[in-house]
Sequence to fold (268 residues):
Amino acid sequence: MKKRLVVLAAALSMSMGLSMVSYAGSWQHDSKGTWYLTDDYKYPVSQWKNIDGNWYYFNTKGYTLTGWQWVDGKAYFFNDGRNSAFPQSAMLRNTKSPDGYDLNGEGAWTQNGIVMTKSGQAGLDVAMHITGENTGERAELFLKLNEYRKSKGLPEMVISGELMAAAQQRAKESAMSFEHTRPDGQAFYTVNNITNNYIGVSEILTMDNSSSTDIKITSFKNSPKHNELMLQSEGFIENVPASTIYAGVGYYYSNGFYYVAMLFGHQK
Fold:
């Protein structure tokens, strides 16, 4: 009887031991590339995966990526062997790509602190035209404005450094007087003398207690007049014949509220 109990105990111990064994995943290679076999004998497909502290992206067939790649609208650089600080195919972060572009802590390509997105010429222009405060939020708003226009079959607006600076000033002024007249009583379009170079200038304003740029765009969409100005065609601005539409965006925080101003116009 005692021997039987010992045997049962030994068998139970072996059973418990086997249930606690875990098998680590492993890298696999074939003629098409590199893939990762997980501990449950599966492999990641069309997804990010953190392996040993580094991020990798696996394509639709489960292979790792290398070099510059667009993922979810942002550009990332996956090690192609030229950066000894990261494993092969790992996403580079908090460094520069081998060809000299900045990569932030999440690995995304940035320029002047702004994450570059795959949204046409506007995405490349924002970094060159936005200076001063809240550049990231202003870039996001400008890009989302153009994404909205494209969803309606309209051409993108063109970013203007002059209108960007003027819109930022108007966002600050709207914190003092939330009107289309300036705190000194002058019309909004007198800001920074923008009418020296632009005609048919229009403005939209919004304010709330959320920092979300999505909420700002939604607020404009929900206002018929604001929505009309965001979706104005290239043919006319405020009934003035126009060619290319230029735009600027301001974003300002004061006393618990976030203020956004957008200015539209076309060059004389």
